[in-house]
Amino acid sequence: MRSLYRRQLTMMVCIMLVSFTLLAGAFMLLSYRYIIGETRDSVERNAGYISNFTSAYYRRYLTLDIQDEFYSSYVATIAMISNSNIIVADPEGKILYATSDGRFYDYTDITIPENILAQVLNEGAFNGMTNLGGIYSERRYLSALRVTNQVGNLSLTQGIVLVAADASNLSEMWASTATIFFFSAVVVFLISVIASTLTSAYQTRPLIEMAEAARKFGQGEFDVRVTGYEDRGDEVSALAEAFNSMANSLEKVESQRAEFIANVSHELKTPMTTIAGFAEGILDGTIPPDREKEYLQIVVSETRRLSRLVRRMLDLSRLNALTQSTVTAQETFDLTEVMSQVLISLETKITDRQLDVEVKMPEGKLMVWGDPDAITQVCYNLLDNAAKFAAPGTAITAQITKKDGKAHVTIRNLGATIPPDELPLLFERFHKADYSRSMDREGVGLGLYIVKTILGNLKENITVASEDGVTQFQFTLTLA
């Protein structure tokens, strides 16, 4: 597997190398041109001074006397000030004399190279690096000019002046500057590599920990968390927070799944054990024949209970599928009619429990948005639950009001008070509030969970309150 750390570090190193290479090339070129340009201007300027002075000397004395102290002093002074060598030659290129370090040197019968002489005579000047055909032991920067005077309408070339600067100083200066640059570049590069290494490790370490945590999740360890990045305040911190939130959700889902399996196993095992035990008792003669009918009725009752449990689980599966697909039927229907039909269907159960019903609904139709079949099940579950836990001889209330574009449905009964710490658990799967208070032992703990799921799919709310024996469920629906 290609490491993100290595790829990021390699990319940063390559970018820095390319950047420093381009910067070094540009710096070397510009510095070299600058240094050469400064030397060229100085040499050309000095060559111009000497050429003009020599031309004036020719005009005054009509010849060039190399022994003239005035002329030689002037030339030697320029040579010393400019730290350069000066050569004066006749028009044929024969060197008359030359200076070096302020002193004259005799180059008897030595001429300057033909190519340089031809360029100076034809173009009037020469500039460039040369050793003058071996006159100098090393290459120097040379500027050469003609010495001319105007005689009538003719321009007469009377000699050539050459000024040469030692290029070794230029190379040393450029090399020193380049060394400083490269030393600085290497230091900056090393610092950048170290910083990039630390930064890459700082960024990839939490990703490695999250990957390891994800592998542990796959192995069933749901208590693993990524910690230590809460105070970073960057995207990695947000990712770690989201990762831990996901881990908490996975742990909760796994806990709910295990609890669901345990509850389903328990709920299925109880009626099946009862059915199997009584059936075996009848078959092997353990149960007397005169009591077989009694126990068969128990078997039938447990079979029906098992059937209800399976039916509720199928409803639950269907609701979960709707939740995942986020598709819920939306149409308008009369809420008062739905509530009336549910009350009629529960009339026998309410009468058997010796309960009264107090109905508070608007006159006429009350149109709302939702799934009529699902809301029918919600009303049935809540009213059935209210009748199941209401104290005999009391009344249950079914009330519908309108407020802020919503229909508020309230189901209220009078019975035992539900403890405050148990109220949030009422809508959990297979949860039953205090088995000892239940007048109906056939419940499976899915009714309120189904109610919550249906209303959640419809983007509606449901609340529960229980105080002084009065338990109240209230949910909302959007008015049409």
Task: Provide a concise account of the structure shown.
The chain has helices spanning 4-61, 69-82, 114-123, 167-218, 235-283, 292-325, 335-345, 347-352, 372-389, 447-457, and strands spanning 84-89, 95-100, 103-105, 125-130, 140-151, 154-166, 331-334, 356-360, 367-370, 395-403, 406-414, 462-467, 470-478. With 480 residues, the chain is α+β, with helices and mostly antiparallel strands.
Task: Please tell me about this protein's structure.
By secondary structure, the protein is α+β, with helices and mostly antiparallel strands. 21% of the residues are buried. The longest helix has 58 residues, at 4-61. A six-stranded antiparallel β-sheet has the order 3-2-1-6-5-4, sandwiched between helices. It has a five-stranded mixed β-sheet with strand order 8-10-11-13-12, with helices on one face. It has a two-stranded antiparallel ribbon with strand order 7-9. The chain starts with a helix and ends with a strand. Helix 1 packs antiparallel against helix 4 (167-218) and helix 6 (292-325) runs parallel beside helix 10. Residues 435-441 have low confidence and may be disordered. The chain is 55% helix and 19% strand. The chain contains ten helices and 13 strands.
Which terms summarize this structure?
13 strands, 480 residues, 5-stranded mixed beta sheet, rod-shaped, alpha+beta, 6-stranded antiparallel beta sheet, 10 helices
| Spatial extent as radius of gyration | 53 Å
Number of strands: 13
Q: What's the shape?
A: rod-shaped
Q: What level of helicity do the residues show? A: 40-55%
Beta-strand fraction estimate: 15-25%
Number of helical stretches of at least 4 residues: 10
Spatial separation of the terminal alpha carbons: 58 Å
